[in-house]
């Protein structure tokens, strides 16, 4: 019963007039001059703020558009630069291909030059260790050499000594130019047979001179192959190669005594074989 009475009291007519009076008071406050003045001021400030915001938005839009224009210009410049780079890259690739072709041509020409130079000395032998004597007959000395190795004396187109190197106390070597590379092969075959039969090297006595000093007979080599054999011989002394020798003017090396002989064409090849395990 108490709850129902309280509920009824909340909706009783005594509370309604107070609400109406409050609403009347509120309406009079809103329409008062002070309130109207405040509202006008707020409205003016609001409009000014809105105009300021709009102006800032426009300025921001202008800056953004200006920046977009600058970026577009940069993009255009970058595209132009990329095109220029592409053109240069294409030109460089063309040059690289041309350079590769030229390098191949140069390599081919160098090989042809090597073959020609090797052909020029293909019949020649060089003899080291023969001292210079007065009125020497080099052709006769070579004939005695052939006889001592059981070989019929080979005809020589010419025999001569190389120019003396003042810094070298050793006698200048003798060059013998034979008629053919076949004759040179016969000579070295006979020398190999002499070594095998006597287990000794050729000496001055084998060419009719006094003394037991050794003499050495080798193939004449081109400047390039002479440099290769010198490098290979130095590496052999350092025990990095087992052997180094020439056959028909070409240089061969062995890494180990039982390994297969390898033909070398440049210094890098010799050093690479020597450095291998």
CATH superfamily of the largest domain: L1 transposable element, RRM domain
The low-confidence parts are 1-27
For the biggest sheet, the summary is: 4 strands, antiparallel
- Portion of residues within helices: 55-70%
Q: Report the span from N to C terminus.
A: 115 Å
Shape: rod-shaped
Strand order of the largest sheet: 2-3-1-4
Q: What number is the mean pLDDT?
A: 84
Strand content: 5-15%
Structural class: alpha+beta
Q: Total number of helical segments?
A: 7
| Secondary structure tally: strands | 7
- CATH class of the largest domain equals Alpha Beta
CATH topology of the largest domain, by name, is: Alpha-Beta Plaits
Q: What does the model show?
A:
The model is unreliable at 1-27 (pLDDT under 50). The protein is of the alpha+beta class. The chain has three domains: 55-120; 122-220, 2-Layer Sandwich (Alpha-Beta Plaits), CATH 3.30.70.1820; 221-277. The protein has helices at residues 2-10, 16-30, 33-120, 138-148, 181-198, 223-237, 267-275, and strands spanning 124-128, 156-161, 174-178, 216-219, 243-247, 250-254, 262-264. Strand 5 (243-247) and strand 6 form a beta hairpin. It has a four-stranded antiparallel sheet with strand order 2-3-1-4. The longest helix is centred in the first third of the chain and has 88 residues, at 33-120.
């Amino acid at each position: 019963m108490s709850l129902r009475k309280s509920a009824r009291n909340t909706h009783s007519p005594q509370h309604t007039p107070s609400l109406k009076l409050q609403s009347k008071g509120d309406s009079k406050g809103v329409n008062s001059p002070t309130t109207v003045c405040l509202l006008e001021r707020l409205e003016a400030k609001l409009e000014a703020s809105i105009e300021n915001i709009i102006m800032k938005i426009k300025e921001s839009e202008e800056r953004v558009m200006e920046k977009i224009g600058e970026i577009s210009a940069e993009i255009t410049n970058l595209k132009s630069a990329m095109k220029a780079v592409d053109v240069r890259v294409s030109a460089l690739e063309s040059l690289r291909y041309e350079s590769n072709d030229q390098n191949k041509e140069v390599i081919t020409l160098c090989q042809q030059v090597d073959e020609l130079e090797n052909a020029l000395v293909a019949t020649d032998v060089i003899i080291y260790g023969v001292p210079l004597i007065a009125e020497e007959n080099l052709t006769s000395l070579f004939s005695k050499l052939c006889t001592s190795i059981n070989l019929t004396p080979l005809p020589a187109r010419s025999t001569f000594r190389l120019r003396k190197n003042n810094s070298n106390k050793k006698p200048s070597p003798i060059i013998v130019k034979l008629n053919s590379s076949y004759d040179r092969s016969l000579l070295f075959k006979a020398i190999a047979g002499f070594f095998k039969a006597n287990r000794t090297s050729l000496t001055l006595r084998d060419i009719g001179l006094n003394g037991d000093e050794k003499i050495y007979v080798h193939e004449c080599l081109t400047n390039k192959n002479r440099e290769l054999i010198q490098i290979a011989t130095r590496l052999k002394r350092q025990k990095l190669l087992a052997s180094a020798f020439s056959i028909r003017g070409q240089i061969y090396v062995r890494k180990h005594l039982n390994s297969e002989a390898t033909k070398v064409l440049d210094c890098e090849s010799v050093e690479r074989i020597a450095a291998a395990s």
